[in-house]
Amino acid sequence: MSLITDQQALRIITEIPLKPLPVTEQPLGNAAGCVLAEDVTTARDIPPFNRAAMDGYAVRRADLEEIPASLEVIAVREAGDCSPVCFGPGQCVKIMTGAAVPDDADAVIMKEDTESDDPDKHVTVLKDAEPYENIARRSEDAAAGSVVLRAGQPLTGPALAVAAGVGRDRLKVYPLPEIALLQTGSELVEPGNPVQDNQIYNSNAALLAGLINDNHLGKVRSLGTSPDVRETLTDLIKAGLRSNVLLLTGGVSMGDFDHVPDVLKSCGVELHLHGVAIKPGKPLAFGSTAQDSYVFGLPGNPVSAMICFQEFVVPLLRRLAGWRRGILHADLTATITAAVRKKPGRVFYCTAQLGWRDGELQARPVFGHGSGDYAANVGANGAIIIPGETTSVEVGEKVTAHLWQLALHQPERI
Fold this sequence. Notes:
six-stranded mixed beta sheet; alpha+beta; Molybdopterin biosynthesis moea protein, domain 2; about 15% helix; disordered C terminus; elongated; Molybdenum Cofactor Biosythetic Enzyme, Chain A; 4 domains; about 30% strand; Molybdopterin biosynthesis moeA protein, domain 3; 6 helices
């Protein structure tokens, strides 16, 4: 197995010619995680009217020259109320958050800055106000006709809220790729089934499906497990190649029963790389077919599979889904909180818990019992990258880190 560097592997994956999947139109509720394929404009001003930002009283600032100021309450306006209301000197309107501010008003006084024995009839204002204080002014967010979302924007929750806020119920998007998952190994048993002493449960399917779904990277199609039998493996790989991407785990190393590379080639897959000088994850393989499907052969050990997925598979999935930038994890600088020792040679991708403390990013390495110890990595949300010839990193030193995602479990202290 001829090894290439991690950077060479990334260049192959990020520079291989491919086209994003054909644009489709989706209901807003189905577009989460997709990349927007059109500019979205607003047909009306945002906000469409002067809107109260607080519960309180709409006033004329000219009536607040002397504080405290005693004002007559002539009306109550709630959100959605369009009835006309006019008031003159010494008068005001009780108003609720989100309601349209009367044309005569140029400020809203918060309820907390008033006092009254009968707040629907009379109020005493206890402070002055700046011009248009507590008023969201018409069009201050966006004017009618302006672009509020650009093509290429990943549709996160806030982006979807913007689309909904301008009245869009459907959007043109790049669809998420279909990703077939296949785990290889005669020792594998599906969870819920009886297991023998020489067998283990298939955890990689759940691992990869969870990572894909957590990050809105694609639609999962599970092919189950294959024993290390060439004929069975061939049939399942052919089935997986009908998806946009096939992710295999196991069978990609140099053992007598590691059939995956040969079977891939027999199924029309051109391997662009096989073997990367990293630890863990050395057996990583990547290829493509003439029918524009893509294949990753990931190591069978769960931690190795997770690292290879995050570092090498995610960039390709993002490209297929229409991402124009940010396909790679950003190189961040973190302070390490525990010493790491390694042998010289391959680049070490050490899983870690990353978090901010005292104004800096800190990294706590995960020390498990090898690349099969997935339990130790439940809280890992990234990796620190230690160069090949480096043999030790001491507490307090700066390291390069990749933040994969925000961990659902954050340690009490980084």
